[in-house]
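Narrative of activities, Objective 1.

The group set out to show that a structural description can be obtained from nothing but a protein's sequence at a throughput compatible with the screening campaign. Below is one input-output pair from the validation batch, recorded exactly as produced.
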Amino acid sequence: MLSENGNFVKVAALSEVAEGKPRAVRVEGHSIALFQHEGAVYATDNQCPHMGYPLVRGRVRKGVLSCDWHGWSYDMEGGGCFTGGCDDLATFPVEVRDGDIYVDVASGGKKRDDAHFLLLKEGLLSHDNWTLSKAIAIMLARGVSEEETLEIMVRHMGRHISTDEDAFNGGRKLAMMMNGLKVAHMYQPEDRLIPLMMSASGAAGALGDRPDRQPLPPPVDWEKLEDWIRVFTTDKEWEGIEKCLITARHLGGHDEKIIPLFFECAVESFFLNHSNNLIHLSHLAELQEQFGWELTGELVCSLGAKILGQGRGRPGELHREAIEKIREIDHIFDELPQGTSAESAADYDEDKFSAALVSGDLDEVFDAVTENLTAGVPINTLATTMVMTAGDRMARTPVNMSPGWWDLQDEMELGSTVRKVLRYGGTKVAAKALYHAAWRFFNNRWLNIRHQPITASRTSTTPIVLDEDAAIAEILDGIESVRIQEIGRRTREYLNAGYSAERLMAEMGLCILKDDNGDDLLSSIYIISEEWKTCESHPGRNQLIVGLARWATDIRRNAGNDSAVQTAHRFARGETATELYE
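Output recorded for this entry:
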């Protein structure tokens, strides 16, 4: 009996599809696999839902179709996947009419409307970057709300970190997620897949079990909880901090006090050698601000407690000396001018402060911070000098031995983070954070980088005439072929020619992420992009871009992200490996 459905189209003669000899046909843009098996004819998507290998190259046993590449198996009639959790196979109605095979593509297709969400959850649990890339590529192709996607990631990360990660790894993974989101938003949707995949990878991991943490019984109030949090921070008891935070949230009315308290505790002098705490807490504050307490509460309470209550080890001699110096000047933080403006820094000697930061002399480093703070130099101005000093050092550091890229990146990120501490913690807390950042510069005194004034213009009086497109192509080729000795010069020549720094940064960012794991570079791509805009009037800001080009070139991993991303995009369009093999 013939179907009355008018969607059936003739695709092949029955004689052309023998038992054990499947055939691929193209119907309305789809590659369809035709099988004759045990007297029946079947039509399925020819693209394996796992990684797109053509299923006509697979094998069939008792109605089970198995892919020859990774062995994923499917019910050939209904499409159900036996191997993956949600990668069902698209199947299509088939009719045989007068020796010919007809297929209704319009009535078949995917079996789960929410498969992309299930794929994302599967990737988050398995920490499989291919599954994450595939899920995100499908979402981008279908125009799925980014908000829904991110909510899944944030909830998962909260449970994962609270049950399965310590302060160090939890902070690192949070940074990866947040920097991935920020970098993704620098690009158009078609170029966002790599940073979004990295962001999802930061959120991914196993979900452990633990009893729900209950609030403390009454009587208790915020004042007691605040005191106890400070005590447990000093004593390195993160579980006590978490219990107090959960109780504070249960009391209600105190949520807005939690993030500022985190920063107040994190700038205590005994955290001087753990300044990454400020970076991680800044990411936590941004996450909470973006997604709200309902979504982030578990993560904020758990990771915030672990950061403040982590073990710190015994400080060495210089470390103890630095702690004592900060304690000696503690009185100045209550006396700092409030609301200082740029005009109050008219006599600020930026090169002198920059030179002090890299002097290698602890007294000189800390005294320079104190002198400028008490003179009313704005904290943001001092943060700019720190960022520019780090950027200039990155642009000039020797690469023949131990260039210290990660140390220089820490200098820059801490300088930039001081701005966030000022925003979330206020003037007094941010002033203390300056000493933590300055300590990082002091710790990098081993770097063999001669200081130069950072206010000196790096532009040439006789710039070389370049073709902009050709110059960018040369820079990208230098990065890809790891020509570290010339990449800085080419980047500087391009910028001196007056061409678009924004275009160069965008092109460099894509190039860097395309063939590198990029975990460490995500933050620098974002920070340099933001600081280049923030420090618009600074004569040395181009050094930030030169430094990024040199670092990205020297630590190149050549991980082949671009190949995986192009595969994921083709998969999302239904074009993946099938076209390559037909």
